[in-house]
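Would you mind giving me a polypeptide sequence along with per-residue structure tokens?
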Amino acid sequence: MNLLVLDYPGHRAEAKVAELCLEDAGHDVVYLLSRSLPTDHAAQAYARSALSAVGPRDTTPDAVLAYCMAAPLAQEVAAATGAPLLVLLDGEPSTPEAVERELRLVLRPTATGVGRLPAWWDRELLRERTADVLTLVRDSVRSSVRAGLADGAGLEGEELDEVAEPVVTAYVDWITHLVAACRADFPAWGGEVVHVASREHQVIDPWPGAAATSVVRLDVERNGLLADDSAREAVLRILRRWEDAR
């Protein structure tokens, strides 16, 4: 089967979709976020940029797979490509609260050990003037990263610039990903959602926009979900059943 995957490539404690090794089962798998990351801040545009980055494809994908808050973006990909199946792996919507939580983590900690949201931060502003907010996010992250490198590593001048900018870009790419997912419309594209969920994951059932939703609950903790044999078996079983039904 032809599969498209949205799984954010940054460092994290949780296992990744690639650890399912779906290629070894004969599937054609394209990881849409494995190259340069989209900079779009709306879900539909973000999804289309991710598709453009891997070039034109001759066939409609059989399924789109997504982990965590990439789920709303994967739904946009399914709608754009006509993929009939969306397989979510601990999928969930992105929210302003999630954006705020991650922004605090990337900003320099205060004496309490937690980064503060900038004084200009406002959820309404995020919704109405997203591009302007992301520019402010980049400025705040750059200031925080540079201060941390200057104090912690004693860097300055061109050396500081050289080290800081890739770090800033990595952080801002992650925040942009969450913001784009937060601005999703959950289009009703006529396809189905199958949700593979870890032990305590809160599943949204029915998934908004899906023609039908089914849930496969696994007795696995979240961080190890995608590295567990039961998850691989569940996904392969879903794909096999879908292929046999066509």
Remarks:
- Residues 143 and 236 are 46 Å apart (CA to CA).
- The chain has two domains: 2-93+184-245, 96-182.
- The beta strands are 2-6, 28-31, 63-67, 85-89, 192-197, 212-217.
